[in-house]
């Protein structure tokens, strides 16, 4: 029986069209330039290589360059979020209707997560933020990150649904028995905004795909067998 909803933060609770995530990426590249003394293109290439290899750039910087994670997180998230995000009444209303405990599971810091939730106007719905510090810097998609998150929630995998915009972050959650929901806009195949794609058309480890976070409500209504 589902009891918990775990939401990723960036580009899951808000859409890519905000333009925020590319700005965060630029901050990561700038941090690498400054701390490692690399030219722009080398810094950008290293950022992508570490993100691919370790799941997040920070993990590679800590392992290979002994970077202080607190220095990194403070620098990367020093952004005027209100220039990119605004209150989302539809998201606020949906979260209010969903009769499950809600938490954020993010590779970012709790401070960044709180600022994002505040800008979206939905902070009150989340009883817990499980950030990279709470995970002791074990990041998604490492399986241990999800086990630690379940421990912090006091929950078993089948009691949770996990919502993320990256398939690779969903697969380990699926392996632990969580229902996994991919938030990703449909391809240009005529699918409507309310489309919920069946599992057979999805990447391994993904149970459902919705075009935006508001589609989560429809998936959960089907799983729980009720509307609200």
Describe this structure in words.
This protein is an alpha/beta fold. The chain folds into 2 domains: about 5-15 and about 85-225, 3-Layer(aba) Sandwich (Rossmann fold); about 20-80, DNA polymerase, domain 1, CATH 1.10.150.450. Helix content is about 45%, strand content about 10%. It has 9 helices and 6 strands; from the N terminus they run βαααααβαβαβαββα. It has helices spanning about 20-35, 40-55, 55-65, 70-75, 90-95, 110-120, 145-155, 165-175, 215-225, and strands at about 5, 100-105, 130, 160-165, 180-185, 210. Strands 3-2-1-4-5-6 form a 6-stranded parallel sheet, sandwiched between helices. Residues about 190-195 have low confidence and may be disordered.
Which terms would index this structure?
single chain; 228 residues; alpha/beta; Rossmann fold; DNA polymerase, domain 1; 2 domains; six-stranded parallel beta sheet; 9 helices; 6 strands; globular
Structure summarized in a few sentences:
Helices cover 43% and strands 11% of the residues.
Which overall shape is indicated by the principal axes computed on the Cα atoms?
globular
CATH topology value of the largest domain = Rossmann fold
User: Which CATH C-level class of the largest domain is it?
Assistant: Alpha Beta
Report the sheet-strand fraction: 5-15%
Radius of gyration: 17 Å
How many domains comprise the coordinates?
A: 2
Task: Give the neighbour order of strands across the main sheet.
Answer: 3-2-1-4-5-6
Terminal CA distance: 17 Å
Biggest beta sheet attributes: 6 strands, parallel
CATH superfamily of the largest domain: HAD superfamily/HAD-like
How much helical structure, as a percent, in the residues? 40-55%
Structural class computed from helices and strand pairing = alpha/beta
Order of helices and strands: EHHHHHEHEHEHEEH
CATH architecture of the largest domain: 3-Layer(aba) Sandwich
Give me the count of strands.
Answer: 6
Low-confidence stretches: 188-195
In round numbers, the mean pLDDT is: 93
How many H/I helical runs?
A: 9
């Amino acid at each position: 029986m589902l009891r918990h909803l775990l939401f990723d933060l960036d580009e899951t609770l808000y859409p890519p069209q905000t333009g925020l995530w590319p700005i965060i990426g630029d901050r990561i590249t700038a941090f690498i330039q400054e701390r490692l003394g690399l030219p722009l293109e080398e810094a950008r290439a290293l950022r992508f290589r570490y993100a691919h290899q370790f799941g997040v750039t920070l993990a590679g910087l800590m392992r290979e360059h002994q970077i202080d994670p607190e220095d990194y997180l403070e620098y990367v998230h020093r952004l005027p979020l209100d220039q990119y995000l605004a209150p989302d009444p539809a998201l606020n209303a949906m979260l209010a209707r969903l009769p499950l405990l809600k938490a954020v599971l993010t590779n970012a810091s709790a401070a960044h997560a709180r600022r994002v939730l505040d800008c979206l106007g939905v902070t009150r719905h989340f009883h817990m933020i499980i950030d990279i510090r709470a995970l002791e810097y074990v990041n998604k998609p490492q399986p241990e990150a999800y086990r630690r998150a379940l421990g912090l929630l006091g929950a078993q995998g089948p009691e949770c649904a996990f919502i993320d915009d990256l398939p690779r972050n969903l697969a380990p959650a699926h392996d632990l028995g969580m229902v996994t929901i991919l938030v990703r806009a449909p391809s240009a195949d005529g699918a409507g905004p309310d489309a919920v794609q069946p599992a057979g058309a999805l990447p391994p480890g993904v149970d459902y795909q919705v075009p935006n976070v508001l589609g989560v409500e429809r998936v959960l209504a089907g799983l729980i067998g009720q509307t609200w």
